[in-house]
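Dear colleague,

Thank you for sharing your sequence with our group. We've completed the structure prediction you requested, and as agreed, I am returning the results in plain text so they can be pasted directly into your records. Please verify that the sequence below matches your submission; if there's any discrepancy, let me know and we will rerun it promptly.
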Amino acid sequence: MPNSAFDPCIPTRGTKVPDRPDWLHEIKHDGYRLIVQREGKRVRLFTRNGYDWSHRFPIIVEAALRHRSSSFVLDGEAVLLGVDGRSDFDGLHSRQHDEEVQFYAFDTLVADGDDIRKLPLSMRKTSLARLLARRIHGIFISDFEQGEIGPDLFRKACEFGLEGIVSKHRDRPYRGGRQPHWVKNKNRKHPAMNRSFEDER
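Please find the predicted structure tokens below.
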């Protein structure tokens, strides 16, 4: 049975990319949405629907345990990188490379034991950067751009054959379920347009 205490925020499908200064934009990695939760010496990895996949991705678990903070919750994407540096969803879905899967964190829900979901995204991003300041193989910060650059970033993502981007309002708190302040715009030529897996972000 699903048992995660953290209901992930789900983006709304977009028809256009926000181009205003109060929005942040992230490249959409083609992977599985995961909540990484560490409490003391225990790390759990939860899917979008609350299933515990802690046994599947050892690199992510080990990276979380090597972190100096012993109480945090990260939201992000489990990704298998191909030889070209791009995410390989087919390889990820095959389960043949579980021991190589890494995590790209784009949000912090708990930092140093404090639930910070009520804080605006801009402050949670600052907390995430502080939390992951020491680079540990297996968990990385997902880069983002801010402001009017959104439509240009989306065009570039499509040109490079990436899945698309997710735009988020910088002043909003973190709430579970589908939210209008997270907007996903997909590359219509990307293979992800033709599939629907339960753990897609």
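Summary note from our side: The chain has two domains: 9-29+144-195, 30-141.

Kind regards,
the structure core
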